[in-house]
Fold these 3 entries.
Entry 1:
Amino acid sequence: MKKIKSIIFVGLITGIVILLIALVVVGASLGKIVKVGIETVAPRITQTPVTVSSVDLSILSGSAGVNGLVVGNPTGYQSANAISMDKAAVSIAPGSLLSDKILVKSIVVQAPQITFEGNPFGANNLSQILANVKGAPTTNSTTTGQTAAGGAKPAKKLEVDDFLIAGAKVHVQLTGIINKSLDLTLPDIHLTDLGKGNDGITAGELTQDVLQEVISATIKSVGEAASSITNVTGKTLNGTVDKIKSGLGGIFGK
């Protein structure tokens, strides 16, 4: 009897070890799959190059880290990229991964680097990316295939309970009214309850919501900084702040 119990115990421990190893292997593979997915789908949303260094994913804890994310600029802009970040920490409800709507508990992005190039209330790289995102298709037929009837499958829905961007640095290359370079730090951008409810939101809609907040915060900071800028003759740029702020409506189509 003791021998049988010993065999059962050893078998149980062996099974647990094999399961843990399998989870680790699958988790590592999923990270690579997510990386490829981001680099495949994101450029179709932003219509710019998007690269990721790596993705760390733990199925057991529901935690993920997106490392070295870089969003390139639209054609015609000179800056190397529009947005870059060392790491975004993501917390997901593991049980939702196979459901119709993925529940993301939190996303935290620390100190991303943002480049704003162009006219604050005219053509600029961030508003062009936003326009691209708004025009992106809301289906994922290009990545998940077709339905049996030949139609495109609806995009996977998301719910993001908490999205925080902290300590964002903005490198501003102003053109239009003035030609000036600025380095600014944005106030924290904190969004909650994105996609709350049954409907959820798509990845494109999430990108649009976040990008609009980034652009709005950037324009506001540029407007505040412009009051202290002087032109080559030393004349204070009176009225620039109001003009920049008035451009917000034009950027967002309000």
Entry 2:
Amino acid sequence: MLLSHLTPFLPKRFWQNSGWLLLIAALSSCGFQLRQPNPVSFKSIQLQGNTQITSALKKSLKEQNIQLVETAEEAELQVELIHEENEKRILSLSGTGVVREYELYYRVQYRTKASNEPTWGLPLVMESRRDYTYNDSNLLAKLAEEKRLTQTMRTDVLNGIMRRLSALKKAE
């Protein structure tokens, strides 16, 4: 009864916010959680190599409370970032020879070695690819799009490396 009298006086925004609050409350009460990264089973890692993804990988490892150490003797796992490659290929041309589509590649090659293993594992490659259309009349927008795609590819590769590291099990 009281609610029907207040409806004309309450702004539309109040009702929209109330709906969002109810949705959030319902999701949290049912046990919904955002997907968390799988934990890496190693407590200390030595990270070798200097690539564009190195600082982001260090940050991800620190977020999981993994100690980054300087020497191999202190590390339970060694990770060496061997090679990083950015590549941009022409995917298609127009009839007049103007580029219409590009394909972006981002690859990181790395290898791992657990403290109890005598040799390094085989090099692993994590890569990401994206296609995008190109138009000279929208040069600034297309350059911004390329930059954004490159950043998302790096994030995808980083997440892939973290998944593979979490799949490695520590020998007891």
Entry 3:
Amino acid sequence: MALTSQQLDHFRRILVARREELARGTIAAERGVNEEDDLAHLDPSDRATASIAKDDLLGEAARSSATLAEVEAALDRIGDGSYGRCTECDREIPLARLEAVPWTPYCIQDQEIADRRREQAETVTGGAPSRVAK
């Protein structure tokens, strides 16, 4: 069953709101990183703490940026009429899954495959996160 125009509008509103939230969060994280850049005036223990905080901010900015790209892609799929279908197998994504993760490009089965591939890639790269295309 294809999504109705009301359902598509519902998901578009959710995705636009999430995009704005992520954009604000990314800007705030980047601002925080820039504020943490001047560590020279701190004593060594404060410098170490500030360095860890900066790494956390960079990680959060990277995660937000990745999710933002997924949200943008979902909005593109709404625009081209493919939203709600798995980008791998073209099966319909259950409505409950879209409600939980509206930017998902995958059905549950293909998401599990993508997750396993990502975990394998992280193992190979020593834990460094990577985006593996299917």
